[in-house]
Amino acid sequence: MDIGADNPIEREPKGHTMSEQNTAVSVVGLGPMGQTMVRAFLAAGIEVTVWNRSSEKVDAMVALGAKRAATVADALDANAVTVLSLTHYAAMYDVLGQATDHLPGKVIANLSSDSPEKARKGAEWVRSHGAEFISGGVMSAGDNIAHPASYIFYSGPKEVFDAHAELLRPLSPQEYLGADDGLAQVFYQALLTIFHPWLLAFDQATAVIERSGHSIAQFIPFAVRSNAAFPYFMETHSVANQNGGWASLASLKMMDAGAQHIIDASEEVGVDSTLSHTAQAFWRRAVAASEEQGRAVSTYALMLGDRP
Ligand SMILES: NC(=O)c1ccc[n+]([C@@H]2O[C@H](COP(=O)([O-])OP(=O)(O)OC[C@H]3O[C@@H](n4cnc5c(N)ncnc54)[C@H](OP(=O)(O)O)[C@@H]3O)[C@@H](O)[C@H]2O)c1
Questions:
Q1: Which of 130, 260, 291, 296 fits a 20 to 30 Å CA distance from 6?
Q2: How confident is the model at residue 223 (pLDDT cuts 50, 70, 90)?
Q3: What is the C-alpha separation between 75 and 106, in angstroms, rounded?
Q4: What residue's CA is closest to ligand 1, atom 39?
């Protein structure tokens, strides 16, 4: 690929027409998610230029029809918009730091995960080098961005999102949240806060089934059936939490006893119960705080770090 002094796009850093903007994009970072994004863009008929730190992943994408950028600067020069799909924001500095003089007039859509504060600082850094910035949190079912439950949170300047929403649409349905550069990561990390313990709890539950000599396949329909109650719990708990959280001493003690039953069921068959001990520690802290304060203290209040 020849992107150099004679590249017409490079001669006009701000001169991309609307149609160019919506038919070509650069993708930097080709882990499982970046590769999925490249495939989605290509399937939508969008021309994709790719760069990755390790080149074998670039080869795989070029074989699918993407264009190779030899350097980060080439990837930035090739298109108005560059999508970053990196492990974290620290990687953005490593990557874009190689070509900061190619940032002016460009648009960076960083769809990598990190904390809200790191996203805000990253946005500031990109803008300090003359590019526009939006951040995204890819709320996908694993790396399956085509799954009906997959979507992407976006935040940052509305006009930047609006100008490039059409180009980014093949990635997943879009949920623009607001101007705060950290907002996409606030919502994304909050959802992952639910997902991580769920994943570990699922491992623990299925390990108990297996170590008890039973079939995981027999168990799963019941797990799916019972998990259908989660939206109901979310609804009732969200009302409670908007009102400071709900607890009664009796229910906290019942949850403590319940946690002990789960721990016993796991440990009787040699399954790791660390997660359940952590849950039990919360119930016990809430019981202790309630007894100390003479009123029910919810685990939500403990999470908030409220002090009497
Ligand atoms: N995979 C999923 O299911 C999923 C779902 C939702 C959201 N996400 C988020 O999407 C982002 C990308 O996901 P992923 O699974 O593709 O992540 P990944 O496997 O960690 O790979 C991301 C890319 O980051 C690059 N990278 C990491 N550190 C770098 C550095 N210091 N300098 C240059 N390049 C660096 C890697 O380059 P090399 O190839 O050279 O190592 C790789 O191309 C992450 O923030 C992830 O949390 C992922």
A1: 130
A2: very high
A3: 11
A4: 54
